[in-house]
Write a structure and sequence with these properties.
This protein is mainly α. The protein is 83% helix and 8% strand. It has a two-stranded antiparallel sheet.
Length: 128
């Protein structure tokens, strides 16, 4: 009868470990995505600053595949600012996701510690 609690305990430990590992992997992926989006946003901010510093009617060109298309400056600024806003929204949602995954990972680690300490306490009590 003592093997049933040990087997059940092992299954619970394995499940919690898998949750912790999956959370940690997803957290790392989210952090990498945030870093990439931050780089993209910074490049866009620099591009917007450069375009804003240009004077008057300057022809601007946007790369489309293997060609370049002329865009008016206001339209180019509008497109870049919209893209920057989209990246900012993506970063905010990824940050929320990362916080959730970090909490999930910490909870799983706490559960593992609780189960291990409980197991040791039970075994120490039985040994006495």
């Amino acid at each position: 009868m003592s093997t049933l609690p040990d087997e059940t305990l092992r299954k619970i430990l394995v499940q919690i470990q898998q949750t912790a590992i999956q959370s940690q992997r997803a957290l790392n992926i989210s952090r990498q995505q945030i870093a990439a989006k931050e780089r993209e946003r910074r490049i866009l901010q620099l591009t917007i600053a450069e375009i804003s510093s240009l004077q008057g009617d300057v022809n601007l060109y946007k790369g489309v595949g293997k060609m370049f298309m002329m865009n008016p400056r206001p339209q180019m600024e509008k497109e870049l600012k919209a893209e920057e806003k989209e990246l900012t929204d993506d970063i905010n949602s990824l940050t929320k996701k990362a916080k959730y995954l970090e909490k999930q990972f910490n909870d799983a680690q706490g559960q593992l510690r609780d189960i291990v300490s409980l197991s040791w306490n039970v075994r120490a009590t039985l040994a006495c």
